[in-house]
Amino acid sequence: MPNDPHALTVTLRVNGEETRFDVDPRTTLLDALRDRLHLTGTKKGCGLGQCGACTVHLDGRRIVSCLTLAVMADGASVTTIEGLGTPDALHPMQEAFVACDAFQCGYCTPGQIMSAVALLQEGHCGSDEEIREHMSGNLCRCGAYANIVDAIRTVAGATDRSGAAVPSREDA
Amino acid sequence: MNAPTPAIGQPVSRVDGPAKVTGTARYAGEFAPDGLAYAAVVTSTIPKGRIRRIDTTAAETIPGVLAVVSHLNAPSLPYHEMEKRPQVDPKSGDQLQVFQGPDILFNGQPVAAVVAQTQEIADAAASCIGIAYEEAEARTVFDPGRGREPSEETAKGGRPGASGRGDADGALAGAAVTVDAAYVQAREHHNAIEPHVTIASWEGDRLTLYDKTQWVQNVVDEIAHVFGMDKEKIRVISPFVGGAFGSALRTWPHVTIAAIAARMAGRPVRVELSRRQLYNAVGYRPHTEQRVRLGADRDGKLTAIVQEAAAQVATYEEYAETTLQPAETTYSCPNVRTAYRLVEMDVNSPCPMRGPGIVTGLYALEAAMDELAFELGMDPVELRLRNHADTNEKTGQPWSSKELRTCYETGAERFGWANRIPEPRSMRVGTELVGYGMATAIYHADRGAAEMQATVFANGTAVIRSAASDMGPGTYTSITQIAADALGLPVDAVRFELGDSDLPTAPVHGGSITLASVGTAASAACEALRDKLDRLPAKGGSIAETLRANSLDRLDAKGKAAPGEETKTHASSAFGAVFVEVRVDEGLGAVRVKRMVGAYDVGRVVNPKIARSQCIGGMMGGIGMALMEQAEWDERFGKVMNANLAEYLVPVCADTPDLDVVFVPGEDTIFNPLGAKGLAEIAICGVAPAITSAVFHATGRRIRHIPIMAERVIG
């Protein structure tokens, strides 16, 4: 903020564009994105690192931006949901989320998608079970998880839908 | 005119999907009026007493602080009584008045707010405010023995202390088979991922509120009464709502705080509640304890239902639920008696949460029905079929439609219910016990009066407008489909504008009424528009050609729809049957839902893709209710100790079972011309008792306290 003697200058490369601004050292990366840079696609759900709505990529890794101070990200590259695609040119994961109806209210969705894209890079899309496990840091209170898994599987090209067989009388 | 394929019934992808997946959908807290300042709310740390002193000196000296607001300097507000309270407000008592005096009514009550140039400064300054209290003895223990009858106003509003028919106690005494069991349901919190947030902006005496709300026009009404303002001077904007599940039905105190703070700071102010604050700043599903007694003959025909419930309530306001309605409507039974009590505590007021009341009462009723089936040695589905209510026996009305039998049949078939070995603990996979359980779902179908404006343009597009909301069920999409069909246009040529109080009247976005209310208004408006088009002197093929042939750029029409005679002649309800398989690891006490099948009668399904999403969402909510969600209450402080999303457990992706949703065919054109009954609430109804019954089937143990956490399985 202006006139603040405690302000620190940070330089971030956000969605490929370098931006430099003064920031209160207490400002989280999340609040810097939302309130300073007006990139409100990254959502605040809890501010406690518990819900995953604020997930962004920092130098290619997914992080919760509410637990990262903006000054800690000085010099880093940040990718937010705005950097993935636009309504007219969706990223394949965004497209899959729409096609699979992988959300309802849409508020956790940017975080889910940022995690989902990271999952592909991490190589954690081998099975539905693996996808579910590695997506469990992103809460969806509307309960769209089954469709989120569908969307990620579609993009990953994985076909594994196996689970243990339904028990029958023979098993019992 | 070449009419496109009808959109209704098609699995159209959400029209607001691209905006939501790219982060361009703008939620209430994301508006940025010029000069926006940020508030932090300070809350009480005692459950009852008075503020003796507030020390704001330290906070005020922090550079960037614009205002510190408390009862010491806040404007005195009239809080006028509304002529007719909206259905989202309790009928008795008074809402919490913010910053109007020193009294503390619950732990977590807002007592001050700091407005600053940034959120960081506001938060830091808020932590510097010192408050001294004079503590009073607080009622923080839920003691059903202290339960009292609801007030007359509450009883008139459909939540009476006593209701029923016949002689239930007499019939129970003479019943061949009986069940008598007590059930506890924990206090639950909505925990939508978007926090509650309001931005207030004054321009002279005009107020604009960007608010997370399920009812923009009611916010106008409420704030007009709180401030003694002219309604015309208030506008509420809320184009996207990041989930709510009932928590944003009412206009909560923080909306007033935002308006006060903006006035005192002389600039627009955002009040965004923290996750921890949400556990007190908005309501919750109240802790409820119930006793159910059932009597039946040897063939399983119910002869008596006695259901009693006691729910927690605040001292200042009387929120009550329709908890005991299912006892009177779900099954055919000549003798029913219900008793409803409220237990006053020094807590913030509870409020509706998805399936309010019904889901609570149905949990206990359906759990007891499972116990009865076991006592009778009868299949739980067969027991339900033998007690099918052919009419609504509470009102004596026929149902406008009811396909519940088909729900049982279809659900059981898809689930493979026939494979269930009746004896508990008889099914196993590896080291895990397997349990099958089922329950009935029922939720009354209602609608409200709604208006819609429809406009067509010479370029062949159309806009429909209504002050409705879309907190996630797909209002934008389903009503666009309805309008597209009514106008004979493709879906992508129609745009729906909502979430603005200046738009035509819409009822509350809750209680599963939106589609039946706003959807029928959309049909009416589009039909009125077609009539207007037909009466134009020059004819053209398409709408666009007709307009151009008449040298018109656009044409508008309004339409409205409201419930009518059918509410007197018929009872309307959505129905369903839920089937669940659980796996129980007795060593760990872990219960996992393996799969779930829900078969639903919701009338006409406008968009099967989005409808299914609502149903799987309700199923996940039900899993939370049955197995995870519980406010950990500390009686010493009158406080929720797990007020965050790591310790208040909600279902995560790894908890997701295989979910199968089927809609049984049916259209309820008695209920409304569209034939849709609404399905938000029905999707959570019956899930919890289906799970608890499956846990019994797996383990042979009745756990009558939800959520069934590991300690309750082991203990």
Brief characterization of the structure:
The complex is a heterodimer of chains A (172) and B (715). Chain A has 172 residues and is an alpha+beta fold. Chain A is 28% helix and 15% strand.
Features:
heterodimer; A: 172 residues; alpha+beta; Ubiquitin-like (UB roll); DNA polymerase, domain 1; five-stranded mixed beta sheet; 5 strands; 28% helix; elongated; disordered C terminus; B: 715 residues; Aldehyde Oxidoreductase, domain 4; seven-stranded mixed beta sheet; six-stranded mixed beta sheet
Helix and strand topology:
The complex is a heterodimer of chains A (172) and B (715).
Chain A: E1 8-14, E2 17-23, H1 29-36, E3 55-58, E4 61-64, E5 77-79, H2 92-99, H3 109-122, H4 128-134, H5 145-156
Parallel strand pairs in A: 1-5
Antiparallel strand pairs in A: 1-2, 3-4, 3-5
Chain B: H1 17-21, E1 37-43, E2 49-55, H2 57-60, E3 65-70, E4 92-93, E5 103-104, E6 110-116, H3 119-126, E7 130-135, H4 152-156, E8 162-165, H5 168-173, E9 177-185, E10 197-203, E11 206-211, H6 216-227, E12 234-237, H7 253-265, E13 269-272, H8 278-281, E14 288-296, E15 302-314, E16 317-318, H9 325-329, E17 336-345, H10 358-376, H11 380-386, E18 391-392, E19 397-398, H12 404-415, E20 428-429, E21 432-444, E22 450-457, E23 462-465, H13 475-487, E24 494-497, H14 514-535, H15 543-549, E25 554-561, H16 566-569, E26 573-585, E27 590-601, H17 608-627, E28 633-634, E29 639-640, E30 658-663, H18 687-699, E31 705-706, H19 710-714
Parallel strand pairs in B: 1-13, 9-31, 11-12, 15-17, 23-24, 27-30
Antiparallel strand pairs in B: 1-6, 2-5, 2-7, 3-6, 4-16, 8-17, 9-14, 10-11, 10-13, 14-15, 18-19, 20-21, 21-26, 22-23, 22-25, 26-27, 28-29
Kindly describe this structure.
The complex is a heterodimer of chains A (172) and B (715). With 172 residues, chain A is an alpha+beta fold. Chain A folds into two domains: 8-83, Ubiquitin-like (UB roll), CATH 3.10.20; 92-156, DNA polymerase, domain 1 (Orthogonal Bundle), CATH 1.10.150. Chain A is built from five helices and five strands; from the N terminus they run ββαβββαααα. Chain A has helices spanning 29-36, 92-99, 109-122, 128-134, 145-156, and strands spanning 8-14, 17-23, 55-58, 61-64, 77-79. A five-stranded mixed β-sheet of chain A has the order 2-1-5-3-4, covered by helices on one side. Residues 158-172 of chain A have low confidence and may be disordered. Chain B is of the alpha+beta class and 715 residues long. A seven-stranded mixed β-sheet of chain B has the order 3-6-1-13-10-11-12. In chain B, strands 8-17-15-14-9-31 form a six-stranded mixed β-sheet. Chain B is globular. Chain B starts with 16 loop residues before the first helix and ends with a helix. The mean pLDDT of chain B is 97. Chains A and B meet through helix 1, helix 2, helix 3, helix 4 and helix 5 of A and helix 1, helix 3, strand 20 and helix 17 of B.
